[in-house]
Specification:
Helix content is about 10%, strand content about 35%. The protein is built from eleven helices and 59 strands. Helix 3 packs parallel to helix 4. It is globular. The structure holds 1-methylethyl 1-thio-beta-D-galactopyranoside. Keywords: Glycosidase, Hydrolase. Its EC number is 3.2.1.23.
Length: about 950
């Protein structure tokens, strides 16, 4: 005899998409049909396993009075102060045994209960639908004690017909959510695992004769300037577009002159789909997407994608985003010149796509599919190549396409991410091509492009991208005919990415290269009381991938990181270059569709970084691709022989939806003449007195040659050669990288523990010379270093010459001097700013006069690492000193040592000490993006070779 002791939870491990839900359809907000949001506080009970509790909680009259509460939309692991478990971060490893479709018995299960009053004026005619916009990862639903069904597909909408079950007055909605299910095998995206009802829950009235599903087809013929509109609808009705005088029946095409929709000119026409039972607002954008001549063209023109991968993220609410946060993303993207977004790696909240239509962003809408963890077993048993899973894959494809098909911003449907190859993917592509031939299909995982309309790659190195641009990459016949995009490149983890400008140059040079999407938009740091922002491992996960989850262009709080500022500059829609000596500026419109009429131009002239004259520059409204030379006025004469330069800016001529008039979209700078270098005769002679050497304003320790003070300014630690930086994520590189990872080699060599051997201190006629050898323990390599101090009585010059000894097979992290000041706060400099820059990430560094404080010079990377350098510094003033460079130098100052920065795991590990540590660098090694891509290009290497550089010190007090 056998009997069952636990309720059946077989559906959890069933590969099918679920049962009971309505077929997918377009997502829209009706103008007149009623709806009721069921967001808010829900009763909540957490169980350790899927079958721990029976279904009686779904029964009417169940008393959940002693249950906890959670907010819906939300993830339970981010609520309850740890009482409901915690998030888990893995990149591609499944946090459970790979035993498809089974999941562990330990399967956190959240029972959610919502008792709601049906409003007394809720219409009694027609039906009603209950919509879930997102539940991770598997839900079973009951209304008033009756089971509606169960579903998987976390970031997709699921609807149930509930008209028959709704009651006047009190209704009880019960939802059981399992963290793990067969669906989890399809949702192995690189992000936190976050169970819960994390998007809206809504009850929708469906009046008799209301719209069910509809499909807006709005194309644009660039040869005639006409658009053709046809709205197919399950329920017949009329389509009205007042601005175009359109009033046609559904299913009827109509052709009229229109302004097309593009991401640069997102013209939307308001319309209405009216059926007997309902009016649905339409926002129609006319555009035609085709693959033609091996290029992705919209409205007849090839598009250059300047994109980013966007995960949905909020540091406190996880993937439960409100409209304002979504809008903030879009505004930030538009203000930083981005024109495209890949919704990595799942369809976003539908409201985000409305914003993309409205503000103008090209979208790759990606299906909620990733099976990356199967790579660990060479893709054996991969669900996308197993027919049993195909219905689930098709369900996901349909739920994406049907939900989102009416958005003009979407140009590509993406099958998913990192799921290998297989028959299931082909089935998805075939279905999508059939259902929506008016868009293209994207998928990166198949380099033969059997199912796709674009050759897409991730993290391809510059040299390979160039080969692809030149059509020298070979590949299948199909692939050779396709355009190329990088759906992910330039890994924005920590400091970086470096090498962006070099990629952009290639994208602009070769037609076949249609741009790319930076990985990724936002750091997924979780707000944490002690740590600031938590990353993988901070919740005690047994498997995790550390701070690989913090690799965005914006910090978790959406503050732009230097990477975003750099990207903005690199992808500016207008190119401004000049011949400063001859006062000529060349302006090029790099947009694909818009002319320059929305922009105003202004010039200014700086002497030693301070603007002395400015005015407006008249530039013709160049067509896309057009270019013109414009003459600048005569540069002002500067009697003191200062450094003169031009700055030309392109600004918004008027307010737009996304930024106000005068917002700067592009700029260029060019010198009128060369910078005069600081020089003076060495007239002073070192004088020895009582163990001290005096030279001009400076005092030294006669035995060690250490600088003690300059004028009244005490120097806490003398300037010494420094080659170490706290390795960035990109220096360290990903473990699986096959290229040399210099961050690792640096540490092996011992560059973080260099020793200084004092060779001699010589007081000569016109200089104090200190010789030393700087080298790591156990190695034969070293750097012979000579510090030569001279003075004219007022100023003090330090010339450093460095000669490498031995066989240096690695570049240096940095090369310069580090010294300590007991006091410094305010900083002013003339050089690159306002933000940090590194050799291969300094396009956005603008030469000027900048002010800051030591604290504000720091860039708050979630995992602390080298940061905050300012490029091309002519002079800097801080702590009572003025330091001039010959030549220009890199400047960094912080309240902790490089060693402390290197040891810190979180920002909270960094505490200000009583010294401000200043680095004056002659050189820095490039940054690259080896945390998931190429290291710095060779031209950004800091080679160990003989050099000499100088600084001139004086006091400001
Ligand atoms: C690539 C993934 O597609 C993306 O989700 C993310 O994990 C990114 O890498 C790294 O942050 S896969 C890559 C390891 C080849």
């Amino acid at each position: 005899m056998s009997f069952r002791t636990t309720p059946s939870v077989d559906y959890v491990e069933d590969v099918s998409p679920g049962s009971g839900a309505l077929p997918p359809r377009a997502w829209y907000a009706s103008s007149d049909a009623r709806s009721l949001s069921l967001n808010g506080s829900w009763r909540f009970r957490l169980s350790a396993t899927a079958g721990a509790e029976d279904d009686s909680f779904a029964d009417e009259g169940y008393d959940a009075g002693n249950w906890a509460e959670v907010t819906v939309p939300g993830h339970w692991v981010l609520q309850g102060d740890g009482a409901f478990g915690s998030p888990i971060y893995t990149n591609h490893l499944y946090p459970f045994p790979v035993d498809p479709p089974y999941v562990p018995t330990e399967n956190p299960t959240g029972d959610h209960l919502r008792v709601f009053d049906l409003p007394s004026d809720w219409p009694s005619d027609g039906g009603a639908v209950l919509r879930f916009d997102g539940v991770e990862s598997c839900a079973r639903v009951w209304l008033n004690g009756t089971e509606l069904g169960e579903f998987k597909g976390s970031r997709l909408a699921h609807e149930f017909a509930v008209g028959e079950l709704l009651k006047p007055g009190v209704n009880v909605l019960a939802v059981r959510v399992h963290q793990w299910s067969a669906g989890s095998y399809l949702e192995d995206q690189d992000q936190w695992w976050l169970p819960g009802i994390f998007r809206d829950v809504t009850l929708l009235h469906r009046p008799a004769g209301s719209v069910a599903d509809f499909f807006v087809h709005a194309s644009y013929d660039h040869t005639t300037g006409e658009g053709t509109l046809r709205v197919d609808s399950d329920v017949d009705g009329r389509v009205l577009v007042p601005a175009l005088d359109i009033d046609v029946a559904t299913g009827e095409p109509v052709t009229v002159a229109v302004e097309p929709w593009t991401a640069e000119t997102p013209k939307l026409y308001d319309g209405v789909l009216a059926t007997d039972g309902e009016r649905v607002p339409l926002r129609i954008g006319f555009r035609t997407v085709v693959l033609e001549d091996g290029l992705v063209k919209v409205n007849g023109t090839a598009v250059l994608f300047k994109g980013v991968n966007r995960h949905e993220w909020h540091p406190e609410r996880g993937r439960a985003l409100d409209l304002e946060t979504m809008r903030e993303d879009v505004l930030l993207m538009k203000r930083h010149n981005l024109n495209a977004v890949r919704t990595s790696h799942y369809p976003p909240h539908p409201a985000f796509l409305d914003l993309c239509d409205e503000y103008g962003l090209w979208v790759i809408d990606e299906c909620d599919l990733e099976t990356h963890g199967f790579t660990e077993q060479d893709w054996r048993d991969n669900p996308v190549d197993d027919d049993r899973w195909t219905p689930a894959l098709l369900d996901r494809a349909a739920r994406m396409v049907e939900r989102d098909k009416n958005h003009p911003s979407i140009v590509f449907w993406s099958l998913g991410n990192e799921a290998g190859t297989g028959r299931g993917l082909t089935a998805m592509a075939e279905w999508i091509h059939g259902r929506d031939p008016e868009r293209l299909v994207h998928y990166e995982g198949d380099w033969n492009c059997r199912d796709t309309d674009v050759y897409s790659r991730m993290y391809a190195f510059h040299d390979e991208v160039e080969k692809i641009g030149q059509q020298l990459d070979g590949g299948t016949h199909r692939r050779r005919e396709l355009p190329f995009i990088q759906c992910e490149y330039a890994h924005a983890m920590g400091n970086g990415p470096g090498g962006l400008a070099d990629y952009q140059e290639l994208f602009e040079k070769y037609d076949r290269l249609q741009g790319g999407f930076i990985w990724e938009w936002i750091d997924h740091g979780v707000k944490h009381a002690e740590l600031g922002y938590a990353y993988g491992g901070d919740f005690g996960e047994e498997l995790h991938d550390g701070n690989f989850v913090c690799d965005g262009l914006v910090f978790p709080d959406r503050t732009p990181s230097p990477g975003l500022i750099e990207y903005k500059k690199v992808i500016e829609p207008v190119h401004i270059e000049g011949d400063g000596a001859n006062g000529i500026v060349r302006i090029t419109n790099k947009q694909d569709f818009a002319d320059l009429s929305a922009l105003a131009f202004e010039w200014s002239c700086q002497v030693d970084g301070e603007t002395v004259e400015s005015g407006s520059l008249s530039v013709p409204a160049l067509a896309p691709g057009g270019s013109a030379e414009v003459k600048l006025p005569e540069p002002p004469v500067d009697g003191r022989g200062g450094e003169r330069q031009w700055t030309v800016r392109a600004l918004l001529a008027g307010d737009t939806l996304w930024a106000a008039k005068d917002h700067v979209v592009a700029w260029g700078q060019f010198a009128v003449g060369a910078r005069p270098l600081p020089s003076f005769p060495a007239t002073d002679r070192p004088a020895l007195d009582d163990g001290r050497i005096t030279l001009g304003p400076a005092r030294f320790d006669a035995r060690t040659g250490a600088l003690l003070s300059i004028g009244g300014v005490e120097v806490g630690a003398t300037p010494r050669l420094d080659v170490w930086r706290a390795p960035t994520d990109n220096d360290d590189g990903a473990e699986w990288q096959t290229d040399t990872r210099y961050g690792v080699l640096w540490r092996t060599l011992g560059l973080h523990r260099m020793r200084h051997r004092l060779v001699s201190v010589e007081a000569g006629d016109d200089a104090l010379t200190v010789r030393s050898r700087v080298a790591p323990a156990a190695r034969e390599v070293g750097l012979d270093t000579v510090y030569r101090w001279t003075s004219d009585g007022e100023r003090l010059r330090l010339s450093v010459s460095v000669t490498p000894e031995g066989d240096w097979t690695v570049p240096l992290p940095r090369l310069g001097v580090r010294f300590g000041l007991p006091e410094a706060d305010r900083v002013e400099w003339f050089g690159g700013g306002p933000g940090e820059a590194y050799p291969d990430s300094k396009a956005a560094s603008m030469i000027g006069r900048w002010q800051s404080t030591v604290d504000r010079l720091q860039t708050p990377y979630v995992r602390p690492q080298e940061n905050g350098a300012r490029a091309d510094v002519r002079w800097v003033e801080l702590g009572g000193l003025r330091i001039e460079g010959d030549p220009e130098f890199w400047f960094t100052a912080r309240r902790w040592t490089t060693e402390q920065l290197d040891a810190a795991r979180h920002r909270s590990d960094l505490a200000a000490g009583d010294t401000v540590w200043v680095n004056l660098d002659h050189g820095l090694h490039g940054i690259g993006s080896q945390s998931c891509g190429p290291g710095p290009l060779p031209q950004y290497f800091l080679k160990a070779e003989p050099v000499e550089f100088s600084f001139v010190f004086s006091t400001t007090r």
